[in-house]
Design goal:
The protein is of the alpha+beta class and 160 residues long. The chain has helices at 16-26, 29-39, 56-76, 132-135; strands at residues 2-7, 10-15, 90-93, 99-105, 111-117, 144-149, 152-158. The protein is globular, with a radius of gyration of 18 Å. It starts with a strand and ends with a strand.
């Protein structure tokens, strides 16, 4: 199986095993396990889009543009059926990170890491992750969600 890998504005097709190697080198054990669990049940023709960047805004923008472009191309090639009227497909997106790291300028002029709210400063952590707040804050999931229908955001919500 091969995967499409996009990094630093470069698109590569690589064997799946090399992707797993990259994942093992850059994610924690818990994050790797979550990623591997998410792959369970994939079929040969399934598509996975993965984007990683030090800025979540860059990653979000890239994935938005990639999915839009991919959908447009697949429709043009008759490889994707157009959406039918009154045929809605819904998806809940959950387990967003509560906290994200951003590079900032340190007091001495060097680089520092600043932790900040990933979504909304009043979002509650997942109850199972509260113990990680002090030791592994970047692994804490927030109680926020998106509802998506036919690739469009319908609503977002948080639990405070």
């Amino acid at each position: 199986m091969e995967v499409l890998l996009c990094c630093s504005q470069e698109v590569q097709i690589m064997p799946f095993i090399l992707l797993l190697d990259l994942i093992y080198r850059h994610l924690s054990e818990a994050q790797t396990a979550t990623f591997i669990d998410a792959l369970e049940g994939l079929q040969l023709d399934d598509l996975i889009l993965i984007c990683a960047d030090s800025s979540s805004e860059v990653a979000d923008d890239f994935l938005h543009q990639a999915t839009y472009s991919l959908r447009r191309e697949l429709l043009a090639l008759n490889m994707l059926k157009p959406l039918q009227a009154n045929n809605f497909k819904f998806l809940w997106v959950v387990d967003f990170p509560l906290i994200e790291a951003e590079e900032a300028e340190g007091k001495d002029g060097g680089k520092a890491v600043k932790l900040q709210s990933a979504h909304h400063p009043f979002t509650a952590p997942q109850p199972d992750d509260v113990d990680l707040l002090k030791s592994k804050p970047l692994e804490v999931r927030g109680q926020h969600y998106d509802l998506v229908s036919n690739l469009l955001d319908v609503c977002v919500g948080i639990c405070c």
